[in-house]
Amino acid sequence: SDIDVVVVGSGAGRDVPAALRAVAAQLERRGLVRPGTLTVIAKARVPIVKFEMAGSGVAFDVSFDVSNGPRAARHVSRLLRAWPPLRPPPPPAPPRGFRFRWCRRG
Predict the structure, then answer these.
(1) Nearest to 51 by CA among 32, 64, 70
(2) 3-state secondary structure of 78
(3) Do β-strands 59-64 and 3-7 pair in parallel, antiparallel, or remain unpaired?
(4) What is the reported pTM?
(5) Cα dihedral 48, 18, 12, 35 sign
(6) Which of 51, 66, 91, 102 is the most exposed place for a label (fewest CB within 10 A)?
(7) What are the helix (H) ranges across 1-106?
(8) From CA 38, how far away is CA 20, in angstroms rounded?
(9) Which tens digit of pLDDT belongs to each residue from 40-61?
(10) Could you tell me the CA-to-CA distances from 68 to 7, 29, 54, 74 in Å, in that order?
């Protein structure tokens, strides 16, 4: 699983691949990227920069001016509010007395 970052209103216009390469260069120059994980995918339908953070190893996908991700998230939120049965069921409760026994250990 990774974190998707969408930069809206970047002003990159039609030259999104160049903007992504510039972001990739800055990330690498500042030492924020784990070596060997930086990839610019400029020819995709949604051009992105993929990388992992150097300190934490958290994976990121960065894209510019693509509003379909945030728009899809809002749509799913609206559907879940309109039809609560679509929400996944909660996890099962722990066995009775489990919390008490867990707290007593020590």
Answers:
(1) 32
(2) helix
(3) parallel
(4) 0.60
(5) positive
(6) 91
(7) 16-29, 68-82, 98-104
(8) 11
(9) 998 888 888 999 999 888 999 8
(10) 12, 30, 28, 10
